[in-house]
Amino acid sequence: MKQPISLLCDESTIKNQSQIHLVASPLKFFDTQFQCRKLIALIFTFAFGLTIGTLLCFQLKSFSFNLQFNNGGINNVSPPLSIFSRSNMRFKVASPHPTPSSLTFPSITDDPDSLEEFLKPPKAMHNMSEEELLWRASMTPKIQELPYKSVPKIAFMFLTRGPVLLASFWEKFFKGHEGLYSIYIHSSPTNKSFYPEDSVFHDRRIPSKTVEWGKVSMIEAERRLLANALLDFSNQHFVLLSEACIPLFNFSTIYSYLTNTNKNFVELYDRPGPVGRGRYNQNMHPTIKLEQWRKGSQWFAINRELALEVVSDKTYFPVFQKHCLGGHGCYADEHYLPTLVNIKFGGKNSNRGLTWVDWSKGGPHPTGFMRANVTPKLLHKMRGGHKCVYNGKETKHCFMFARKFMPPALGKLLRIAPKIMQFNS
């Protein structure tokens, strides 16, 4: 049986060795004793280090197990992946080697892949190109039933040259109805108008391009407005307005009028003569036939189904882009949407618009109302002086909006109209 290592260097062993080597010098004796003590020290150091290392190993394994178990299971911990931010269309990449202390486990409200985050509409001003915008806006789910609670909103889309001239009047109209509407403004790129932070129009301008009256660029601007509004899944109805438009009723009445019908409000009619069928271009055949050609006002109120059709139209809109350029009396804003609706949505349209306009003076532009023109009599006439059909029944409430009110009329409108229209009631 082998003796322990420690016994190899006891005093008796050293003594025996010294007797055998009588001729050895005293220095050799002391050198041997030093080497044995050094060996003993190394052995103790190794044993101590091995013990400490073993204890640390068990501690680290225990810590790793507890961290994984407390967060939903042993195999559920994974490094965070790249996060796609829908608000600015950029990629944000987390650290490729996160330490245990930097790992976070977000709740569903912070999860970029949650339904809530997916449904969040981007800001009105964004960096998408027009092709990217139209492509994204054209998406629609085949499953119609929503997997979440939603309150339908109305998108009020203002097509303007400069600022919304009657903004303070619209402020009174919208007040108290937050969450039921969205606002979008398409203005000239050179327009530098500013809306204060407490205004409903603040930060509601969309990326815009120059628009020429009577040209196909008017339709391009309308498609741009619709596409931006479609990015908000809550927007179910879309109203096109100018900077000279006003509402004729309070918000609750207009909201009810639009959300309680399955009809679109696009004015269209077949008109013989030079300002109707005479504007048809034979080069549009066979995609658009003469008997399908229609005319109407550009100011509309449509539902989401038709809005999606407009922004994704690759059949009829290119024909207008090529053959209805404003020359020879072919004004795209008066013919594109009426013709499209006549071809594809005839049974779902009321064939009338919701914006009251006075064309009695003739000419290419309607009557503009100044301060002296604004009277209770005029407003009552606009609100109820007509007959039409709504949801299969005859009604006198045919128009929800009116134009063309000029800036000098604003003061008088603010004084007499809110009471007539029962704002905030």
TrEMBL record:
It is found in: Membrane. It is a single-pass type II membrane protein. Keywords: Glycoprotein, Glycosyltransferase, Membrane, Transferase, Transmembrane, Transmembrane helix. The chain crosses the membrane at residues 39-58. InterPro entries: BC10-like (IPR044174), Glyco_trans_14 (IPR003406). It comes from the Eukaryota. GO terms for cellular component: membrane. Its main location: membrane. GO terms for molecular function: glycosyltransferase activity. This is Transferase. It comes from Lithospermum erythrorhizon (Purple gromwell). The lineage of its organism: Eukaryota, Viridiplantae, Streptophyta, Embryophyta, Tracheophyta.
